[in-house]
Amino acid sequence: MFQDVDEDTGLPVAGGSCTIFANLLERATYLNRPHKREKNNASPSVPPALRKRKANSMAGCSQWQPEKTSNVDKSNNDRIILNSINETNPSFYQLLEASYADQRTFLNNILEAPSVLDIQREWPVLFNKNAIKWHFNKLTGSNLDFLSENLNNKAAKIVQFGLNTKLINCIETENLNYQSLEVLSKYFKEDFSLLYYKFKYSTDIEEILKVNAPCIVEIENKGTSVYLEKVKVTHCIHFTEALQVAFVLYFNMNLEYIKAISTTLEMIQRYFLKIHPDSGTKSQKISSSKKSDWFNE
């Protein structure tokens, strides 16, 4: 199902596994290479018990904590202005760039991670959709548009696979992106309902949500939103945009994938966004056999 194929002919390339084999070989070579531990790697401000959490938070991030260059007064002024303007202002992205190190310093408090309410109070702009996407691209060096582009291109194939293997009973042509992720979660025997909720009415949503992790909530005739810690953080136009935002929050906010759907989320990260960390993982636990099976169908 996930083998390497020529985009023009549709035929397998080098047996269909050359890219993943090359990636695995490169990874194995890296892990087996002698590594000298630098004295500064073990941050004295982070207790040993939390260093693994920090390493996992940094997984896949190339700009996790840049050095701060501005003074305190300018930083506070930039934050106040940025929180009060919208993305149509010409200064919006300039201020995001100028205050990025301050944003990361605020979010990277491993000892006492800020809550959603803390973020809404101090850095509400971090829940602006455009700011969320910009922050992710800056943080990872990736491009969030790859997620929607690759999902749009591959959804029909994944859904057809789900139909052929009886993971689903029919194809919903108007909901291919949603259905493709449903197929993946069923294939990995995971609970997609922890990521996506659909309600007829908007009453008592916070009490019904099962997890504090990022999730998508669709209310009939009222649109789609993303919740974090059972708090609504932003409204989205459609499912795919909500998926982008919900997934990105795991990176931006230093969160681990929830165990019950971690393989599906890891699939989104690696297969659709092509983010392959050299070290660390956002999965609390992931089966190596499942990972290899992704590319063997």
Give a short synopsis of this structure.
The protein has 297 residues and is α+β, with helices and mostly antiparallel strands.
Structural overview:
With 297 residues, the protein is an alpha+beta fold. The chain folds into 3 domains: 1-30, no CATH class; 63-127, no CATH class; 145-293, no CATH class. Helix content is 47%, strand content 7%. It is built from 13 helices and 4 strands. It has helices spanning 18-32, 48-58, 72-84, 92-98, 100-107, 116-122, 129-140, 145-164, 176-187, 205-208, 239-252, 262-272, 288-293, and strands at 196-199, 215-219, 223-228, 231-236. It has a 4-stranded mixed β-sheet with strand order 1-2-3-4, covered by helices on one side. Strand 3 and strand 4 (231-236) form a beta hairpin. The termini are close together. Residues 35-43 and 287-292 have low confidence and may be disordered.
Helix segment tally: 13
Let me know the average pLDDT: 85
Helix-strand pattern, N to C? HHHHHHHHHEHEEEHHH
Number of beta strands: 4
Strand order of the largest sheet: 1-2-3-4
Unreliable stretches: 35-43, 287-292
Portion of residues in beta strands equals 5-15%
- Helix percentage range: 40-55%
- Return the domain count: 3
Provide the structure class: alpha+beta
Report Rg: 20 Å
Major beta sheet summary: 4 strands, mixed
How far is it from the N-terminal to the C-terminal residue, by CA?
A: 4 Å
Shape annotation: globular
